[in-house]
Amino acid sequence: MRYNKNIDGNYKLILSITLLLTLSIYTMLVGCESESPIQTEDDESITAEFGVLTGTVQPYEALVVLQRNGADFRSTIANDEGRWILSELPIGNYSLYVVASGYFTDISRNDINVEAGETFDIGTVVLRPHTEAATLIGKVIDGSDGQPIPKSEINVICVTGICAPVIGITDSEGNFSIQLWSGLAGKVNIKSQDHQPTIIRVQELPPRQIFDLETIVLERK
Fold first, then answer.
1. Cross-strand pairs, 199
2. Is the pLDDT of residue 188 over 80?
3. Which of 3, 110, 158, 215 sits most deeply, having the most CB atoms within 10 A of its CB?
4. Which of 9-13, 71-75, 103-107 has the highest mean pLDDT?
5. Are 185 and 161 in contact (CB under 8 A)?
6. Residue 87's closest CA among 138, 53, 48?
7. 60 falls in which pLDDT band (50, 70, 90)?
8. Under a CB-based contact definition with an 8 Å cutoff, are residues 65 and 97 in contact?
9. What distance, in Å, lies between the first and last C-alpha atoms of the chain?
């Protein structure tokens, strides 16, 4: 009988341990399930820290590039109706430019503020075709000997108007030809490595016309 009592006692002990383990596992499972709504709330608070940008471009299927801190950040291609959208953007300030083959790059959208949980429509960007451009030509020579200066840089920076900087290079005869958006006011900076730079101002150039700056003389440094 003593032997049987020991067996019975051991059985009860094993049963108790089993019940305790089962209860512990159940408690853990219930505890995990009760934490799920808290995790969901955390996910929602993270999502709320982002915003959305959208807009329309012409021509359709242009490339829209978003910049942050002066560097390209995100990009997308407008659909066949010209609509585009960039979502899940961290809150903050951005700038945006639009590119399409055969058109001038538009950099008019600056200081775009993305707010948490908001969708901001920047409106419509209409690109200007190269066929409507004004053409600027000229020749760069050395002031000391009158010889052409090849590989001189022609940099056009807009003062007013909407345009990206335009860069041209003179050929072996010192000639250059660059296309500009019509109607802009800008500074044409002509420079060469061994010469003093020269600045020429242009403004309100009509479209589809050629303007000759003629001979531009650079003096040696």
1. 189
2. yes
3. 158
4. 71-75
5. yes
6. 53
7. confident
8. yes
9. 118
Which residues contact residue 84 at a Cβ distance below 8 angstroms, ignoring those fewer than 6 apart? 54, 55, 56, 57, 64, 76, 77, 78
Query: pLDDT over 70 for what percent of the chain?
Result: 76
- pTM of the full predicted structure? 0.63
6 phi, psi to nearest 5 deg: -65, -40
CA-to-CA dists, residue 208 to 21, 32, 134, 136, angstroms: 86, 71, 5, 11
- Tokens (6 digits) for 35: 């934490």
Strand order in 71-77's β-sheet? Answer: 71-77, 63-68, 92-99, 106-114
Tokens of 145: 């000997």
- Provide CB contacts within 8 A for 133, sequence distance 6+: 104, 179, 180, 181, 182, 207, 208
Strand pairing partners for 57?
A: 125
- Token pair 């403004």 in the structure block, residue: 203
